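Hmm, what's this shape?
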Amino acid sequence: MKLLSIYMTMTFLMSLGTAYAESIPGFLEIEPYAVNSAPMNHANYSNDEWRVELVNDKLSVSKSVPNNKIELDIAGGKLIAEDGGEWGGKLEFRKGSDVQKIHVDHGVSSLFKLSEDRVAAMTGISHMGLNRGALLIFSKKAKAGKWKLERKITLSDAPMTSFRKDSKTILFASSKGLHQVECDSL
C-alpha cells in the first residue's frame, strides 16, 4: 500500500497568506494570538467556519456553511455518512425501505466511489487529546448483498479535508501534512 506524505509547515501556510493578503478586500494581517489568551479562546469557540481557497490565483476567504452529511448514489441505493465531530458519526446504506447500518468508530468526512460496489471513506477525530483517523473501504458482498467494512490505512491524525485529485489519487490534509493515497493500492 502506497501512502506518500508531503509535509507542510505553518511557516509555509503563513507565508502563503501573507503573499496573497492584498487580494482580499478588508483583509488585515495581525500577529498570531498568544496561546490561552482571551482573543485566542474567543476565536477557538467561535461558531463561524471559514472556507479558504485560491480562486483564479487569488486567495479567497468566505464564510462556510457546515455540512456534516454526505450522500453517495451507489449500487442501486444511497450510502449516507454523517460526521458528528466528537459525538461520533454514522454510516448507512439505504435501498428503498431497506437500511443497513454500518458501525464506524468516528465520523465520516469524505466518501470516494472506487467502483459500483467499493467506496473509500476518510474518518477521524481531532478533539482535546484525541487525534487519529483512518481510510476505510466499504465493499458490497456479492452473495449476501450486504456492505462490509475494512480498515485499509490507520492514520496518526485526523484528516481535515480531502478530495479526489484524479481517478487514481486521493489527497487529504491533516495537522501533520498533505498526504496522497493511490487508489490502485486500495
Notes: The longest strand covers residues 130-140.
